[in-house]
Amino acid sequence: MTQIDLSGKTALVTGAAGGLGAAIAAGLHANGATVALLDRDARANTATAAALGDRATPVHADLADLDQLRTAFAEATERLDGVDILVNNAAVAPMRTLWDIEPEEWDTVFAINVRAAFFLSRMAAEGMRARGCGRIINIASLAGQKARPTGAHYGASKAALTAMTRAFATELAADGVTANAVAPGMIDTPLVHSIGEEKEAELTAEIPVGRIAEPNEIADLVSFLAADTGAFINGATYDINGGVLMR
Ligand SMILES: NC(=O)c1ccc[n+]([C@@H]2O[C@H](COP(=O)([O-])OP(=O)(O)OC[C@H]3O[C@@H](n4cnc5c(N)ncnc54)[C@H](O)[C@@H]3O)[C@@H](O)[C@H]2O)c1
Fold first, then answer.
1. pLDDT tens track for 186-211
2. What are the structural domains, with CATH classification, of the chain?
C-alpha cells in the first residue's frame, strides 16, 4: 500500500502564518517535506515557521502585489532548491451583500484569491515541468459551489479558482504535474470566528455531521494529494464539508 511520505520533497504554502495554511504547512512538514511558509503577516509567519523547527522557512509578501510575489517565490525557490508542491491557500473573504461590494474590493478579492494563485502556479510550474513532477493544490471553498447571502465576490473567486485548477491540470499533466482543488466547508479558523458566534452556530446547525472541521482534517487531504497517494488524481475538486453539499 502506498504511504503518505513527503521526505525529500519541498512545498510552498501561501497564507501559512495561521488558520488552515499553518495546519497545511504543519501536515506537509510532519510527513517529511521541507516547507516555505508565505504570508503578509511577517511576525506571525516567522513564529509559525519557527514552531515547526528544521525544514521550515518563512517568506513574506502581500499576494496582491505581483512584484512582491515574484521576489518571495524566488526566495522560496532558492532556499528550498525548487518547489515540488505548491498550495495556494491564502484568501480574503469580506462578507458583504451585493449592494455593498465596491469595485476596489472586488478587484482586491480577485487579485489575492485568483490572480496570485495563477501567477504563483505558473512560476512554480516552470520548475515542476523541468523536473517532470509536481503538485499544485488550490484551496477553494463551499462558497464557490453554494451561494450565501453575502460574499458574492468571494464565491465567484473560489469558483474561478476551481476552473483555473482544471486548466492547469489539462495543460501540465503530460509533464508530470497535477493540479487539484480542495473545497472545504466551515473550518475552525480565525476567518470563521470573524462571522460572529450567532451566525457560526446557525451555519453549524446546517452541517449533517453536526460540527465544523478541524484544520488538520483538511490538511490531511492536502498531504494525501501531495504525496504519491495522489499520483492519479488530476483536475479534481474535493468537497470536504461534512455533508452540507452532496453530489
Ligand atoms: N475557514 C473556513 O471556514 C474556510 C472555509 C472554506 C474555505 N476556506 C479557505 O481556506 C483558506 C484559508 O482560510 P483560513 O480560514 O485559514 O483564513 P485566515 O483568514 O484564518 O488565514 C488566511 C491567511 O492568509 C494570509 N493572507 C491573506 N491575504 C494575504 C495576502 N494578500 N498576502 C499574503 N498573505 C495573505 C493571512 O495573513 C492569513 O495568515 C482560504 O483560501 C479560505 O478561502 C476557509
1. 999 988 888 888 888 999 999 999 99
2. 10-240 (3.40.50.720)
